Amino acid sequence: MEAVSEKKRQEFKWVQSFIGLNQKELSGMAVTQSETPDFILQSPRKKISLEVTTLIDPELKKKESLKEKIVRQAREKAGGKYPDGLHVHVSFASEDIICRANEIDRYAENICSIVDDIYTKNDVKNATGFPSFTQEFTDGLISSVSVWPNQKQTHWSTEQSFAFAWIDPDALVKRIREKETILKKYAKHFNENWLLLVANLWDESSSYDFTNIKKRVALSTPFHRVCIYQWMDNRFVKLK
Q1: Would you say 197 and 229 are in contact if contact means Cβ atoms under 8 Å apart?
Q2: Which of 148, 141, 86, 74 is nearest to 111 (CA)?
Q3: In the beta sheet, which residues pair with residue 193?
Q4: For residues 201 and 56, what is the distance between their CA atoms, to the nearest angstrom?
């Protein structure tokens, strides 16, 4: 249940941001969390259903999740070895990491050894200000590990660079169609039914270039509004 409630809290934040950007149509509407639909927006004159979903490439997400799991396990192994406020960023050399479950522990151990080497060689414990220390590699699974001490909180993460690819119009329409099957269950109880697609969440699997998206997607849908909220830029584009 905790995972579900955390998901709902995140969705609620996206909805609040979206409403803030769309004051012309949604100003003054009360927001209620629901299950089917995800949210209900209501004023004395209008009742709107709002379905919320993310645009994520599932195959890329699997790869990202594996990298995150390796780094998360490395942090757990480090335990309380370092003072609070240490940031560790790990860049992976390979886009396609293939490993067995029992190999994750070995990769995590390797990251721990690299962090310890950086920490010891550079006397990071006594560093002042906000310096960064990086160790790079020309072969193997990891391309670099960077350490930043004296931050507000401890944070270990993967670091990635990527280009914003064009979204596949067919994949986008397919995602909308999936939500239309749920819409049938409640549509008649609302004045309008909206769909909010959330993208560009600071990782490659959710990041797309939506330039001229309305010209590239032929959309016919029973939803009254279909909008894409681009989280990183805090803006949205209306498909319908």
Answers
A1: yes
A2: 74
A3: 49
A4: 9
**Residue 57 φ then ψ, to 5°:** -80, 110
Find, among 107, 77, 105, the residue nearest to 92 by Cα.
107
Query: What angle, rounded to 10 degrees, do the helices at 101-121 and 58-78 form?
Result: 50
- Name the band, by pLDDT with cuts 50, 70 and 90, for residue 228: very high
- Helices and strands: H and E segment counts in the chain: 6, 12
pLDDT at 95: 64
In degrees and rounded to multiples of 5, residue 16 shows phi and psi of -60, -45
**How large is the greatest C-alpha to C-alpha distance in the chain, in angstroms?**
67
Q: Is the dihedral of CA 207, 154, 98, 133 positive or negative?
A: positive
Range with lowest mean pLDDT among 36-45, 131-140, 194-203:
131-140
Give residue 2's pLDDT. 47
Nearest to 145 by CA among 133, 155, 130, 154: 133
Torsion (CA) 196, 202, 207, 211 in degrees, nearest 10:
80
**Contact of 122 with 133, CB cutoff 8 Å:** yes
The length of the chain is 240
Give the DSSP H/E element, type plus range, for residue 114: helix 101-121
DSSP 167: P
**Looking at per-residue confidence, does 9 or 99 come out higher?**
9
Distance CA 201, CA 15 (A): 14
User: Model confidence over 190-200: pLDDT tens digits?
Assistant: 999 999 999 99
Q: Give the angle 87-91-92 at the CA atoms, nearest 5°.
A: 145
